[in-house]
Amino acid sequence: MKKILEVEDLHISFHTFAGEVQAIRGVNFDLYEGETLAIVGESGSGKSVTTKSIMRLLPPGNSEIKSGKILFKDKDLAKATEKQMQKIRGKDISMIFQDPMTSLNPTMTIGKQIMEPLLKHQKLSKSKARERALKLLDLVGIPKPEVRLKQYPHQFSGGMRQRVVIAIALACTPKVLIADEPTTALDVTIQGQILDLMKDLQKQIETSIIFITHDLGVVANVADRVAVMYGGKIVEVGTVDEIFYNPKHPYTWGLISSMPSLDTDDEELYVIPGSPPDLLNPPKGDAFAPRNPYAMKIDLEEEPPMFQVSDTHYAATWLLHPDAPKVEPPEAVKERMDKFREKAAGSIKEGK
Amino acid sequence: MVEEEKLLEVKNLKQYFNVGKTKEVRAVDGLTFDIYKGETLGLVGESGCGKSTTGRSIIRLYEATDGEVLYQGKNVHGKKSKAEIKAFNRKMQMIFQDPYASLNPRMKVSQIIAEGIDIHGLAKSKKDRMEKVCSLLETVGLNREHANRYPHEFSGGQRQRIGIARALAVDPEFIIADEPISALDVSIQAQVVNLLKKLQEEKDLTYLFIAHDLSMVKYISDRIGVMFAGKLMELAPSEDLYRSPMHPYTKSLLSAIPLPDPDYERSRIRIAYDPSQHHYDEKEEVKMREVAPAHYVYCSEEEFEKYKKNYNSKEKV
Question: Which family is this sequence assigned to (chain B) (predicted)?
Answer without folding.
Answer: Belongs to the ABC transporter superfamily.
